[in-house]
Amino acid sequence: MGSLYIFGDSYSTPNYFVEPQLSWWGLLAKQLDMPVCNYSWPGNNIDSIQHIVVSNRDQFNKDDFVVIGIPPKERLTIFKNDAVPKPVTHFDKNLVQTHISDVLTHQGLDQCTMHEMGKDMVNAYNVSWQEAKILKDIILLSHWLDSVVNKHIIVNLGVPFQPVTEWPTLKSLQEQALENKKILVFSNTYYSVNKDVHKPVDYDTWGWFGHHGVEGNALWYNSVLRKL
Question: 22-77 pLDDT, tens per residue?
């Protein structure tokens, strides 16, 4: 029997403003009748997710379903020798937590935001180039996953990626991503589906970038994931 693998940030972290059974990934697990291995934690980013997915190649079986949730783009993975170990949380088919273990392939790594890296990094940041780098990586990752598992999907948890531009550096990657039915990053994101519809539980702190409870998780599941 296959397992559902979830990779993401606080929007998919177990018991983060919503119980596992009522989270978007929990609803998907019930639909698929699969146990879950959840590699999510607050502040995670796409670099770390890709590193963990590829590094843990041997743990996957062909009948597993891998869901990669792209966190907000403005985050970096950095080396930090004394970094706190990151968790993978395991659930059975009834979404009862069985155990938590450390992600050994992320040892010595941590995350930070662009702003935490200082003025020079902020000044050099460009959203179009950042999206180009992410699209390049997830296009390659999607092709790699095709050889590892029978089913995977790469979804966007944050702000939608911009529409196709005329900048050649980005345009070709946008077109390739749009052709790949397993990459869903340009619309219907966890953030955009809920914006102006369901206020996050922590709206007073984070505004529309906050974390949703039962209603917001159900809306995104029913709008996007249930149709997979």
Answer: 999 999 999 999 999 999 999 999 999 999 999 999 999 999 999 999 999 989 89
Give the three-state DSSP class for 119: helix
Pairing of strands 109-113, 75-79: antiparallel
Q: Is 101 left (phi over 0), alpha (psi -120 to 50) or beta?
A: beta
Distance in angstroms (rounded) separating the CA atoms of residues 164 and 38: 32
| Single-letter amino acid code for the residue at 196 | D
Residue 102 CB partners (closer than 8 Å, separation 6+): 85, 86, 87, 88
Strands 87-91 and 36-40: antiparallel
Domain covering 4-227, topology: Rossmann fold (3.40.50)
Report residue 1 as tokens.
């029997």
In this structure, are residues 106 and 51 in contact, taking their beta carbons and an 8 Å threshold?
yes
Beta bridge partners of residue 113, listed in sequence order: 75
